[in-house]
Task: structure prediction
Amino acid sequence: MNIWVFSQEANGAPTTATLELLTKARSLGDVTAFVGGDASAIAGSLGEHGAARVYATGDLGGKLPGVAVAAAMKAVIDGGDTPDLIMFPQTTEGRDVMSRLSVKLDRTVLTNNVDIVSDGGSVSVTTPIFGGNTLVTTSFSGPGPFLAAFRPKSFTAESAGGAAAAVTAAPVPELGALGGAQVTAVHVEATSGPKLDEAAIVVSGGRGLGEAPKYEMVETLAKLLKGAPGASRAIVDAGWVPYSYQVGQTGKVVKPGVYIAVGISGATQHMVGMKGSKNIIAINKDKEAPIFGIADLGIVGDVHKVLPKLIEALQSRG
Amino acid sequence: MNVIVCVKQIPDPATPGALGSDNTLKRDGKLILDESDSYGVEMALQLVDAAGGGEVSLVSMAPNGEVSGLRTALAMGAAKGTLISDPALQGSDALTTAKVLAAAIQKMGGADLVIAATESSDGYTGTVPEQLAEVLGLPSVTFAKKVTIADGTLNADRQTEEGYDEVTCPLPAVISVTAGVVEPRYPSFKGIMAAKSKPIDTVTAADLGVTPVGWAGAGQSIVNVAQAEARAAGEIIEDDGEGYAKIVAFLENLKVI
Result:
């Protein structure tokens, strides 16, 4: 099977989600990494994780990746190199590229997957629904390329020790009216401490905190535990914290050793993003809150009473 | 300025979801406006207001001639709607949905701006807005969290994994907006009464010239549905003032403190 992986870069290295997909892809077939941008700095790492070849568009010049990378992929396919399967990280850009490409190729897309199986000519993927209670397995039918997006942390990234992959240019063709959107400035929201999706401990706050200033307790607790602070969608929508803090279906997927949910009821959309945590502690005043259904330790109580005492106890340990 | 908002009518998220015998999400009960789409409706109303003229129209695809979610959005202030309702569309994939919506938008005469949510709250495939843009041959800005329009150009703050980008885009265009982009208004009593008589044009896939549709048009088939492994039940205790000590002991036991 000829497999492409839409490969993303951050701070001069392939993203973890990219390496996870390359690792999985190499167990299914021959792997080509497709990079929206310049690949010279990351070709080594891509090769190490299983990419035998790399296509790179070169600098996108401020074009959004969705329209530009999809057009570049289509041009390579029109040139005669047709993959059987293209795997995308379930990220902002991954979703955009696969959406644009699906129309160009007239192929269906399957998103939010956590697993993939290839059996003979048939490829099927698995998606959790209803907050992860139910797993649906879907097969692609009809001709390829099959387009599938996978949630981060669905697979474990491992180096195969491969050599750096050879890079072939896959330039973006003239986009015409489709390419009208232009990035004029990039803003990175500064965070301190470990990254939310890589931290060993995550402390997330929700609506149960009552008001925005109380989120400070979540940050204090996270800092004491050398963890990262996170948030439910409700308080991100309410503007208490930036989107980059959000854990859940529409935010980040986290699988820390310990997840502490503070004042979070456990909407399905939140649970999807943290259910894979090794240990879950929940503090919530509503004993019927769904979060207690997946908690290893649940404290039914007022977060404004429990949290200050917990913080004080941890501080006194030095 | 004329804006078309894609609105999805979904089963009430407050009631547990269920799959039908064909493994698609059951949508036979009453459907409501997806809350994610209320942000797009509000954004559209504000942009038209700021432009000093034009109107907001709605487009929705739903079974059984469902209009209750459309009426909610009309009550917020949209002027009219188009509903695509057709048994042949049952089982349609996201690509077919995008083609159907695009055909309906063209039948409505197009718009300066098409707005959708980043993803629905029930199926959350999350590809329709960008697919729609491609079918319509338009530029797009996805994940917009702030939008203004000046001199025929859209300026948006586009949410990214690490922060946000400032993006400009000429109109006409398609955008997807995040929840929280604006505060959706509550329909007033007057708005609810007025919505009852606002026009909703109901069409079928055939009226739009879109084929194939439904299961026949989907390049996918569900082969298995299984229960995920349940987590073992944990210890749930009422806080008696010493609940924090339980947490400390739990963390100690894991050797993380």
Q: What stands out?
A: The first strand of chain A starts at residue 2 and ends at 7. Chain A has a mean pLDDT of 94. Chain A has eight helices and 18 strands. Chain A touches chain B through 91 residues (CB under 8 Å).
